[in-house]
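Our consortium's second objective concerns turning raw sequence data into structural hypotheses that experimental partners can test. To show how far this objective has progressed, the report includes one record in full. It was chosen at random from the queue rather than selected for favorable results. The single chain below, 274 residues long, was entered without modification.
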Amino acid sequence: MSNNPFSKPRLPPEQVQKYNIEGFLIYQNEVLRPEKFAGLKTHFEELLANLPEGQRPESMDVPHFTDPALFEWLFADEALDLVEPILGPDIALFSSHFICKPKGDGRRVPWHEDSSYWKEMISPMEVATLWLAIDPSTKINGCMHVVPHTHNTGRKGFSDYDPVDTTKNIFPTEITKSQRDESRAVACELQPNQASIHDGRIIHGSEPNTSSIRRCGYTMRYMSSATKLSEQAREYHKIYLARGRDLANQSYADPAESYDQFLEHRHKIGKKGH
């Protein structure tokens, strides 16, 4: 590979193999060019400053539905070049989510599989999430932990869940304790503009942020355009063709359009988070 971190392919074969075996990868080079990352951080700070009163900063789900400016980063070659070695050249944007844990009282993310939220939405269950660090993300301020290999062993993304305290946790349920092994978890510690990439079926979670340092990441979720969005999901969710061809003969949303009423419908039917 070239010494230039932005040259293609951005992931060598051995890193792709590691991702496929373990279900995740920590990428410690710059994801976006510095000026582009600075633009994203500035844009996020503006969004955060204008959150509706009472809305937690952890819950900034699918912001691109009503903020087309985010496609400058979601469709950036630097991001797509990172996931193309995993997904192939025909890529759809599945979703995105700012998960911002404020300092002092940032809520815990219970152990979960993203696939458990998406099982009625897409098939096959093949999503690569690029978790881009906006702030430093360390053990001190509640970085993400993943349990390697759980994407293709055991229940393969479909564990059983129990209720948890929603005043302390971002999501209302957590994988049943007997079906997770936290002792094998790996901390995904990142500096700003670094990222982890994880399979949609892997078990992961994070501790609360009780530190004096904010922790924010932007989850940019991609899938092959061969992955099909269900008709049921089309009532509350939209996907976008990010690169290449449509391989599933399905329609895509317009990245230049804002879908305010669509987001309102998601909230009305209780589709929140992930």
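The partners drew two points from this record. The chain has a mean pLDDT of 95. Helices lie at 13-22, 34-49, 71-74, 77-87, 114-118, 260-268. Both points have been shared with the crystallography group to help prioritize constructs.
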